[in-house]
Amino acid sequence: MADQSPDRQGAREAGGTIVACATPPGRGGVAVIRVSGEAVRAMTAEILGQVPPARSACLVSLTDSSGELLDRGLALFFPAPNSFTGEDVLELQVHGSPVVCDLLVARICELGARPAGPGEFSRRAFLNDRMDLAQAEAVADLIDAASAAAARAAARSLRGAFSEAVEALVSRLTGLRAHLEATLDFPDEEVNPLEDRTLKEGFEELGIRFGRVSEAAERGRILRDGLNVVISGRPNAGKSSLMNVLAGEPAAIVADEPGTTRDLVRAEISIEGIPVELIDTAGLRSAGGGVEREGVRRARAARDEADLVLNVWDAAAGGRQPRPAGRTIVVRNKIDLTGETPGAAGDRTVSLSARTGAGLDSLREILAEAAGGSAEGVFSARSRQVNSLKEANRRFLAAGSLFGQGHSAELVAEELRLAQEHLGEITGAVGSDDLLGEIFSQFCIGK
To answer: Left if phi > 0, otherwise alpha if psi is -120 to 50, otherwise beta: which for 176?
Structure first.
């Protein structure tokens, strides 16, 4: 990924040698101090009295400016470009005393290094083409993983699974653009590019690939961030009871009086290793006082932003049941009063009793499927990346629509170019310093 854009080149020139403790603050058996930059070799010789053999752990004595011993530990020297950052890197494994770490970091700073900023080591790895932006973000995702499934997904992205999927889309987009633009370069051939069979097949095949990658990325996003599930419905349908039984604790107040829930009530659960945030909301009705009306407004806003909505319906009350659609699943509650059989009707309606627990297993299966089903083969993805992928797909679909309607080939080619730019935002082939600053500021110091 040899991008030499002004943004990336300017970030390289900021340079300098950086140092940070890469292990969490506090006492421990071992702490790791990491140094990266052009002055590492000279600093290593000054502190250790030697430069250790490349990529070999050596037992060394670490001294201050007067030659007094600070600690004994292991030193590993990684010469550029074969290191994590692509620069000369020194890693010191010392006793896990905060005092010792502070003394060593201060000593290295005396020799000309500066404290690293959040994510600066990973940022340098990206800027020096040791990894692309999707892989760099996977480093932080692996550190922050809240489940074994999320950790495996982040490891897949770190190995390049997400990047490879995106690059495959870019490659096919490039092929389509090249084929289309080649026809524009030879107008005298009297070939109508919009009737080209190869282009038609290319659009169809790429559309399928976009769908597969988009679905995988959304599953990865849910695996990383969790599934946001809003429990909605009319008053007294049993929303809070359902919330409590799913959470396994009395997270929400349950009462016969309509309008008991006024604000959003949240609870965290885990479904198949995937974090799920449940949000109980105010019953949807037009009556009630000012406080309840505000609760209804918040309920509608939460429902609009949810990954999934459980529309709870009182099966014993009769009336016209809502239809499942889009991100909504209809939950027919209180079947213990109607005598109907618990379980799912398709993948969008489930009958259950929050009071007895009948049918809850079917609902949990639906939630697990909505959360991505099996995490096998899933790569981690972030909202930023998913949004860029959606924009790329939107531009591609616009190109396909223009192509199908017989519009000029120039317009089709421009939409394809914009789609490719949005894909470039995912891996960092297209970006800005502001974007990089926002991304890496979320990393921990020393990574």
So the answer is: alpha
| CA max distance for the chain | 86
Predicted confidence (pLDDT) per residue in 241-281, tens digit: 888 888 887 655 555 555 445 567 888 888 777 788 888 88
Question: The pTM is what?
Answer: 0.74
Which run of H or of E encompasses 439? helix 433-440
For the chain, list the domains and their CATH numbers.
6-132 (3.30.1360.120), 155-223+378-427 (1.20.120.430), 227-370 (3.40.50.300)
Q: Which of 411, 384, 416 is nearest to 397 (CA)?
A: 416
Element (H, E) at 209: helix 197-225
Tokens of 98: 């905060």
> In 303-342, which positions are buried (b, 16+ CB within 10 angstroms) versus exposed (e)?
beebbbbbbbbbbbeeeeeeebeeebbbbbbbbbeeebeb
Residue 371 has pLDDT above 60, yes or no: yes
Q: How far from 138 is each of 254, 263, 293, 378, CA to CA, in Å?
A: 42, 35, 42, 13
pLDDT tens digits along 194-240:
667 888 888 999 999 999 999 889 888 888 888 889 888 888 888 88
> In this structure, is the dihedral angle defined by the CA atoms of residues 89, 92, 98 and 103, taken in order, positive or negative?
negative
pLDDT at 4 over 50: no
- List Cβ neighbours of 265 (8 Å cut-off, separation of 6 or more): 240, 243, 251, 252, 279, 280, 281
